[in-house]
C-alpha cells in the first residue's frame, strides 16, 4: 500500500494495524535494548501483555532524561555499523543522540514527501528554507523531501534577514518554510528597512513552534499567502510527523509510524487533553516506547472532512516541559542549568526569558552573590561574555547576560 493511501484506512483497520505494530515494537525493544528489557521487567511486564492498544498505558514511559542518561548508544536497537546517520541535540551533561539506519532514512523521506505533497508542493515550486542551525534535522528532511518532488530548494545558511528577503525576491521563491517567529522577523525587517516582501510567495509552511491565530492572520494578510502548520519533535520525527491538510482542522499525525496517547502528566492516566506520548512503530535504530514529549495536546480521533482517518492533534500552549523557544529552537531548563553550573561552578539564581519581539535576543538575568561578585566592571563583563559564548556554542543562539543586584 502507498504511504499516501494509509492515511485513509478505516478506523477498524487502524486498530488492527496498531495492535500488530505495537506488539512487534515491544518485542523488538525487549529483545534488543537492555534499558527497555530492564524497565519492562521492573514493571512486571512482557511484550505479550499487550493485547489491545489500550494496554500500552501499563507500560513505562521514556523521558528525555532517559535518552541523555543512556548516551551514547545504549538505546540503539541495531549495531552501530547499521547506523548511517547520527543527529545530536544539546542536553547536559550528555547530549541526546538519535541514530538512523538506511531504512529509517527512507521512511523519514517518505513521510516528508507525504507532508510536502499534502501541502501542495509541486515540481515547479521554489522552496526557501529559513530555519536556525539548531533545527538541522528539519532542514535536512525538508531539503530531501522537496528534492524528491523535484522542487528547487534554497537551504539556509547564516545570513542577514534582509539578504533572505532579497534572495527570495530575486529567485521568485513560491514557498517559504520557516518558524512563526522568523516569519514575524521578516515582517519587522521589511518594515524597518522599507524592503518589499517577496510577492512570488504563495504558501508559508510554519514549523517548529505553535502560532497564535492572531499571528497567523497577520502573516497571511501581510505576506498575502496561505499558511499551513506542521509539527515534529527532533527526538522522533521531523515535519512529516504531523501536519495540517487544506481543511486546517488539527494536525494529521503519521499514525502509520507513531502510536499516540494523551495522558494527565500528574497521574499518567488517559485524558482527553494532556501530555502527548508517542511510541514509534517502525523505527529501526532508535525505537521509543511512550516517549513523553512535554507537549500539551488534544487528540481528535474522528475522520477529518478531507477524508483522512489519521488522528489529529491540536497543540495547546503552554506545554508541560520547562523550556523556552527562540526562533523555533527549544532551550530546555535542564540543559540551561547544566550549562550555568558548568560555567560558574554552581547554579546561580537566575531568570531567563525570550522576548515576544523576534529581533530581540533571549535575556538571562543573574543575581550577583559572593561567589559571583567581581569587584571590577571589566571582570563582570568578562563573566557575562563567558556565558554568552558558552550559550552560543551550546545552543547555536545568541543570548544576553545581565547582572542584577542581590
Ligand atoms: Zn484533514
Structure described in brief:
The chain is of the alpha/beta class. The protein contains 11 helices and 18 strands.
Notable characteristics:
406 residues; alpha/beta; Rossmann fold; GMP Synthetase, Chain A, domain 3; 11-stranded mixed sheet; 3-stranded mixed sheet; binds zinc ion
Helix/sheet category = alpha/beta
Bound ligand species: zinc ion
| Fraction in beta strands | 15-25%
Number of domains: 2
Number of strands: 18
What gyration radius follows from the Cα positions, in whole Å? Answer: 22 Å
Classified in CATH, the superfamily of the largest domain is: ANL, N-terminal domain
Mean pLDDT: 93
CATH architecture of the largest domain: 3-Layer(aba) Sandwich
- What is the count of DSSP helices, taking H or I runs of 4+ residues? 11
Order of helices and strands: HHHHEEHEHEHEHEHEEEEEEEEEHEEHE
Query: Quick one: CATH class of the largest domain?
Result: Alpha Beta
CATH fold call of the largest domain: Rossmann fold
Instruction: Give the low-confidence spans.
Output: none
GO molecular function: ligase activity
Domain AMP-dependent synthetase/ligase: 149-275
InterPro entries: AMP-dep_synth/lig_dom, ANL_N_sf
Organism: Thermosulfurimonas marina
Amino acid at each position: 500500500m502507498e504511504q499516501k493511501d494509509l492515511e485513509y484506512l478505516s478506523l477498524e483497520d487502524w486498530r488492527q494495524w496498531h495492535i500488530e505494530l505495537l506488539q512487534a515494537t515491544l518485542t523488538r525493544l525487549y529483545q534488543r535494548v537492555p534499558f527497555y528489557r530492564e524497565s519492562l521487567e521492573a514493571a512486571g511486564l512482557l511484550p505479550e501483555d499487550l493485547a489491545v492498544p489500550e494496554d500500552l498505558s501499563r507500560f513505562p514511559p521514556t523521558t528525555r532524561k532517559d535518552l541523555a542518561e543512556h548516551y551514547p548508544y545504549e538505546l540503539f536497537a541495531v549495531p552501530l555499523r547499521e547506523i548511517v546517520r547520527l543527529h545530536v541535540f544539546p542536553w547536559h551533561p550528555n547530549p541526546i543522540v538519535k541514530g538512523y539506519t538506511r531504512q529509517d532514512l527512507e521512511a523519514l523521506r517518505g513521510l516528508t514527501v507525504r507532508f510536502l505533497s499534502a501541502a501542495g508542493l509541486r515540481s515547479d515550486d521554489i522552496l526557501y528554507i529559513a530555519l536556525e542551525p539548531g533545527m538541522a534535522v528539519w532542514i535536512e528532511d525538508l531539503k530531501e523531501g522537496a528534492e524528491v518532488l523535484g522542487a528547487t530548494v534554497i537551504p539556509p545558511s547564516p545570513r542577514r534577514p534582509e539578504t533572505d528577503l532579497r534572495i527570495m525576491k530575486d529567485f521568485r521563491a513560491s514557498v517559504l518554510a520557516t518558524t512563526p517567529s522568523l516569519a514575524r522577523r521578516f515582517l519587522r525587517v521589511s518594515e524597518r528597512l522599507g524592503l518589499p516582501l517577496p510577492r512570488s510567495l504563495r504558501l508559508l509552511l510554519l514549523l517548529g513552534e505553535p502560532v497564535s491565530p492572531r499571528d497567523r492572520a497577520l502573516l497571511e494578510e501581510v505576506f498575502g499567502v496561505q499558511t499551513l502548520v506542521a509539527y515534529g519533535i527532533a527526538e522522533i520525527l521531523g515535519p512529516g510527523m504531523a501536519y495540517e491538510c487544506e481543511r486546517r482542522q488539527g494536525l494529521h499525525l503519521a499514525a502509520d509510524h507513531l502510536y499516540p496517547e494523551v495522558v494527565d502528566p500528574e497521574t499518567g492516566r488517559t485524558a482527553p487533553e494532556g501530555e502527548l506520548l508517542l511510541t514509534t512503530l517502525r523505527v529501526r535504530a532508535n525505537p521509543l516506547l511512550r516517549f513523553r514529549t512535554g507537549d500539551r495536546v488534544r487528540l481528535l480521533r474522528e475522520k477529518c472532512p478531507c477524508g483522512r482517518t489519521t488522528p489529529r492533534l491540536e497543540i495547546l500552549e503552554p506545554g508541560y516541559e520547562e523550556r523556552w523557544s527562540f526562533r523555533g529552537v527549544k532551550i530546555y531548563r535542564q540543559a540551561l542549568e547544566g550549562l550555568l553550573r558548568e560555567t560558574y561552578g554552581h547554579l546561580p539564581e537566575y531568570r531567563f526569558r525570550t522576548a515576544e519581539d523576534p529581533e530581540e535576543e533571549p535575556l538571562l538575568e543573574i543575581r550577583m552573590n559572593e561567589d559571583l561578585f567581581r569587584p571590577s566592571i571589566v571582570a563582570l563583563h568578562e563573566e557575562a561574555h563567558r556565558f554568552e559564548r558558552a550559550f552560543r556554542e551550546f545552543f547555536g543562539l545568541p543570548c544576553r547576560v545581565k547582572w542584577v543586584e542581590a
